[in-house]
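Work through what follows:
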Amino acid sequence: MLGLLSKSRFQGLWSSSKRSFAASDQNQFKVSDRICMELTAVHRTGSLRKILDQFKKHKLNLTSIESSILDKKPNDSHLVKFSIGVQGEKDRINIEDAIKGIDDIILSYKYLTPARVPWFPKKITDLDLQGGELQVRDEEAARDHPQLKDAEYRARRDYIASVSKGYKVLDPIPDVEYNENENKTWEYVYENLRPLQDQAMASQFIHNVHRMERECGMNKKKIPQLRPISEYLQAETGFRLRPVSGILSQREFLNSLAHRVFCSTQYIRHHSTPEYTPEPDIVHEILGHAPMFADKDFADMSQLIGLYSLGANADQLTRLGALYWYTVEFGACKEGNQIKGYGAGVASSFGEIRHFMSDKPKFEPLDPMNRLPLDFPVQTYQPIFFYGKSFKHMKEILLEYGEYLKKPFKAYYDYEKSEVEVDRPIETYMSAEGGLNF
């Protein structure tokens, strides 16, 4: 059997059922404490300063302002559109007065109505509303694997999953007491996969594995608990692990990243096939994902994908799922004249990491605006990997991709409040979509 990464976070083992949000209609929210408008103006030297001074004079608190040229003219006098956000929904009278004072440059203006978007977790504690209906298992996808045929293993796996059932995101992560079989499986994987990682993975990945070994006590003898790993990540980059009892929907999984939360399983693959699992397990989470979440630039990249997923429509969500796949799961980067892996799908799969180091896959520069395949191989190794020059460079690419998506609002994160802020009024509704699963 191929030593592939489990694809079930995207398709295969788990198929979508009805909506998986525990959130109900009463959890919908409206952000309307600000006014958003567009001004069309004749742009000359000093026009922007004049607009800003006029708004300040009328005590209007601007939350955002962006400009774009509409009509460039030879005499350098052209039309420009200003998109402006003003704090306080009761300030329209002051806005009208401010515009009267600059009517020599303002040609027209309009107020923007609230955008209606799918519900998303605005506060970090809203993540506790997710996962009420986990994805339904499609056993046909891996019906011959002992992981699905072994009743004793399945009972044990279900028990481990139950440990995190009802977990609240700010609570201490509960420990799991692993048995001898499980620890031996971990030992085999650790002993045989770590040397391959040292050959294939990026220096940032290897550096953080060594730090996790020193500071979290991670070793080959026993499966590490999520709590010390999560505390280490929080201290390094603010990311935390959230134990989950099953597979979340694509939207829920990506939305969690906006809050710097990574949803992690705690069970481990079947002891008879330590080099392969048809579903994500703790090997994939700890030896695949966790090391890179300790890198600041990578953590920022992951959070950007999460922020872009908030309120995304179905097409945007599909594209973000692909972007996640080709970066967080199967990303690569340049190191000198070499290309190294950093994605968890490479790091945690015996077959994939050997394939990555072979002459079989193709490598192309990461350019999601122009090339982002939306179909993922399920039963074969990755035919292509996309790489960046550096993690800072990839973060710049992702920032540009946020503009490319053309969402109706922008989301920012308030770290003091652990809460998402948006730049214009929105209304949310409950989405009953399917899609790929994570």
